[in-house]
Design goal:
With 139 residues, chain A is an alpha+beta fold. Chain A has helices at 23-38, 59-76; strands spanning 4-7, 14-20, 48-55, 79-89, 95-104, 116-126, 131-138. Chain A has one domain: 3-Layer(bab) Sandwich (Archease, Possible Chaperone, Chain: A, domain 1), CATH 3.55.10.10. Classes of the chains: A alpha+beta (139), B alpha+beta (468).
Chain lengths: 139, 468
C-alpha cells in the first residue's frame, strides 16, 4: 500500500490522499504527506524526538488537529519531521499520542510554507482495506 | 454557473439573484471576455455562495485576477452591513495582510546591473527566507504585544524605518483596536521568532527596472521619475502568526455558525455575526496580524536599505530609498461606502484584492519573469468594487504540475537569459514559481485599466529576485 499520493485538483494549493491499513498507519502516513510538502523529507534524519499529544471531537477532527499541530511545531520547535510513531489513538477519535522524529529545520532542506489545513473536500474514510484521508493544504 | 453570467458592458458581467436558491444579492465579475473565458466555473459558483450570507451588500465582486480559493476566490471582495452582517475569517483567508511594499531608488538600471551579482546574494544574506529560516530579531512577549498593538509606530521607534514610511502605508501602518489578548499563545509562539522574515512560496523580494510610465503627473508625485529607474518590491505576509490566527478563528467561527444558526452553502465560509463576541474577537485578533505584517515588511525594508548602502557605498537617504506605498491584499476593514445613495458602515472583506481608494497607489505584483504594475485608485472603484482592485496574476498551473513540467535550474538559466538574476533556497521553488505557471498579468491589467477600477501609472520588470 502506498503511503500517500498528490492529487491534481488545486491550482494554487496542494491536495493529497494518505492511506493506512490501520488508523495508526493512516495518521503516520498523512503526517508523512504533509512533511513531503514542508521539507525535502528524504533528507531529514531522525536526530531529535518530539512527543505530541492531540485531542479531537471525532476521528476527522483528530486528524485535522494532528496535522495542524505538526504545522505549528515546524515554527515553534524549528523542526522538520520525517518519522512518526503513533503510540496511542482513541477509537472514538478523542485523543492521540505520537512520537515524532526529525531534525532542526534549515532552508537548505526546506520545501514550502504550509499555512494551514483546510476543509476543502476534506474526508476520512474507512474502506475494506483500511482507511484513507483526503487533505487540502493552504500554501 | 458560468453560462448564467450576463454581460452588462465591455468589462462587467452579472449573476442574477435567481441563478440559485438562497442568494440574497447579485454577484458581479469585472473583466474582459478573455478574462471571463479563463475563469473557473467553480470560482464563479463560490461568488454565489457568498451572496447567500446574512447582511451581504450587493454585489459580491469578482476581480479580473479572480481564481478559485478556499471558500471564496482569490481576487474577490464582499461587503457586509456593520450591524446585520457577518465578519468572516474564512472570507479573509489564511495569510492575513499578505501584501506588497514598493520602495523607490534614484539608481539607474545601468548602475544596478553592474552590481547585480553582488546585490542579489547580499540581499539573500540579509533577508531570512525559506522554510526553516531563522529571524534575526528576538522579541520579548511584551515587545511582541507592542508590535501587534502599535504596528509601524513600534517599528519606527525601534529604528526600523521613518515617519515617512508610516505615512506611505495603508492605515498608517497600524489598525486601531488590535487586541493581543485575542491572539492565542500558539500564534505568538509561531510568529514571535519570525518577525523580519520573508517566508516562502509565492512571496518574494524583487529588484525592478521601470519600463513604462503611463501617468507622468501621478508618477512624479510618488517619486517615480523615469524609465530605467530601479525600484524594490516586497511581497510577504503575517507569517505563522497570521496563519495561526486564521486557523484558530476558523474553528471558533465554525462553532459560531451553529450557535447563531447561520446557513452556510460551504463549510469554509466560517463566519460570525458582526456584533457577536466571535466576530469582534476575530476582528481584534486579525488587526494584530495586520499590524505584525506591516511591521514585518518595514523591518525588511530597513535591512534592504542597509544592504544597498553596503553595496553602493551611499546612504539610503542619498539613494532616495523611500516607500512609495505599502498595502495589504488579504484583510477585513470597517469602511464607509455609499449603498443605494446612502452612506453605510460595512465590513469589507478583501481576499486577494487591493484597496483602491480614489488617488491611492495600487501595487500589483507580477511573477518573477513578468511585469509588476503601480496603478491609481479611482472614483469608479468606489462605486463598482467597494474601492478595490486586483492583487496579481493568479496561477494557471498547480505547483505539482509546475514541478513536473519545469526544472528549477533551467528556470534560473532562462530567467538569466532574460536579464533576471534569481536566487532561491533550493531550485525546486523556482520550478514551482516558474513564470509560465501563472496567468498573463497583462491581460489582468488591461481589464483593470479598461474597466476603470484603477488606472495604470507605471510598469516594472524584475532584474533581481530572491525567493524562499
Amino acid at each position: 500500500m502506498k503511503r500517500f499520493e498528490f492529487i491534481e485538483d488545486l491550482k494554487s494549493d496542494v491536495m493529497f490522499k494518505a492511506y493506512g491499513k490501520s488508523l495508526e498507519e493512516l495518521f503516520a502516513n498523512a503526517a508523512f504527506g504533509l512533511f513531503s510538502v514542508i521539507c525535502q523529507i528524504d533528507r531529514v534524519k531522525p536526530k531529535k524526538v518530539k512527543l505530541v499529544k492531540v485531542r479531537g471531537e471525532n476521528m476527522e477532527d483528530l486528524m485535522f488537529n494532528w496535522l495542524q499541530e505538526l504545522i505549528g511545531i515546524v515554527e515553534t520547535d524549528n523542526l522538520f519531521l520525517s518519522r512518526f510513531e503513533i503510540l496511542k489513538i482513541g477509537e472514538d477519535g478523542t485523543h492521540l499520542e505520537a512520537r515524532c522524529y526529525g531534525e532542526a529545520a534549515t532552508p537548505e532542506k526546506g520545501g514550502t510554507v504550509v499555512k494551514g489545513v483546510t476543509y476543502y473536500k476534506y474526508e476520512l474514510r474507512k474502506t475494506k482495506d483500511g482507511y484513507n484521508v483526503r487533505v487540502s493544504l493552504d500554501i | 454557473m458560468k453560462e448564467r453570467l450576463r454581460q452588462i458592458s465591455s468589462y462587467v458581467w452579472e449573476l442574477d439573484k435567481n441563478v440559485r436558491p438562497k442568494m440574497r444579492v447579485k454577484a458581479k465579475i469585472i473583466g474582459s471576455k478573455r478574462v471571463i473565458e479563463d475563469v473557473d466555473d467553480a470560482a464563479v459558483e463560490q461568488l454565489t455562495n457568498v451572496a447567500c450570507l446574512p447582511g451581504v451588500i450587493e454585489p459580491v465582486v469578482g476581480l479580473p485576477d479572480m481564481h478559485w480559493g478556499y471558500g471564496l476566490p482569490m481576487g474577490a471582495v464582499s461587503a457586509f452591513d456593520a450591524n446585520e452582517g457577518v465578519i468572516s475569517s474564512g472570507l479573509c483567508g489564511f495569510d492575513i495582510n499578505c501584501g506588497v511594499n514598493s520602495i523607490r531608488t534614484n539608481l539607474t538600471f545601468e548602475e544596478v546591473r553592474e552590481k547585480i551579482n553582488e546585490l542579489v546574494p547580499a540581499l539573500f544574506q540579509s533577508i531570512p527566507c525559506g522554510v526553516g529560516s531563522k529571524g534575526k530579531l528576538r522579541l520579548t512577549p511584551t515587545q511582541l504585544d507592542e508590535v501587534l498593538t502599535r504596528g509601524l509606530n513600534w517599528a519606527v521607534e525601534n529604528g526600523y524605518g521613518t515617519k515617512e514610511d508610516i505615512e506611505s502605508t495603508e492605515e498608517n501602518g497600524c489598525m486601531d483596536g488590535a487586541d493581543p489578548s485575542r491572539v492565542s499563545d500558539l500564534a505568538k509562539r509561531r510568529g514571535g521568532p519570525q518577525l523580519g522574515t520573508l517566508g516562502a512560496g509565492n512571496h518574494f523580494l524583487e529588484i525592478q527596472r521601470l519600463t513604462d510610465i503611463f501617468d507622468e503627473e501621478t508618477a512624479k508625485q510618488w517619486g517615480i521619475m523615469g524609465k530605467n529607474q530601479v525600484l524594490v518590491m516586497i511581497h510577504c505576509g503575517s507569517r505563522g502568526l497570521g496563519h495561526q490566527v486564521a486557523t484558530d478563528y476558523l474553528k471558533i467561527q465554525e462553532r459560531a455558525v451553529d450557535k447563531y444558526n447561520i446557513w452556510l452553502p460551504d463549510r469554509q465560509l466560517a463566519c460570525a455575526p458582526a456584533k457577536s463576541k466571535e466576530g469582534q474577537d476575530y476582528f481584534a485578533a486579525m488587526k494584530c496580524a495586520v499590524n505584525y505584517s506591516f511591521t514585518n515588511r518595514l523591518v525588511m525594508t530597513q535591512w534592504i536599505r542597509e544592504t544597498f548602502e553596503k553595496v553602493f557605498g551611499k546612504s539610503w537617504e542619498a539613494m532616495d530609498m523611500h516607500t512609495i506605498y505599502a498595502l495589504c491584499h488579504n484583510v477585513v476593514k470597517l469602511e464607509e461606502h455609499i449603498v443605494n445613495g446612502e452612506k453605510r458602515k460595512l465590513f469589507v472583506h478583501r481576499k486577494g484584492a487591493t484597496r483602491a481608494f480614489l488617488g491611492d497607489p495600487v501595487l500589483i505584483a507580477g511573477t518573477m519573469g513578468t511585469s509588476s504594475y503601480i496603478l491609481k485608485g479611482t472614483e469608479k472603484a468606489m462605486r463598482e468594487t467597494f474601492g478595490s482592485s486586483v492583487h496579481g496574476a493568479g496561477r494557471a498551473m498547480s505547483r505539482n504540475a509546475a514541478i513536473k513540467k519545469f526544472w528549477g535550474e533551467r528556470v534560473r538559466q532562462e530567467l538569466g537569459q532574460s536579464g533576471i538574476t534569481a536566487k532561491s533556497t533550493h531550485p525546486k521553488i523556482l520550478a514551482e514559481e516558474a513564470p509560465r505557471a501563472y496567468k498573463d498579468v497583462e491581460m489582468v491589467i488591461e481589464s483593470v485599466h479598461g474597466s476603470g477600477i484603477s488606472l495604470k501609472v507605471a510598469r516594472m520588470v524584475p532584474i533581481g529576485v530572491c525567493k524562499g
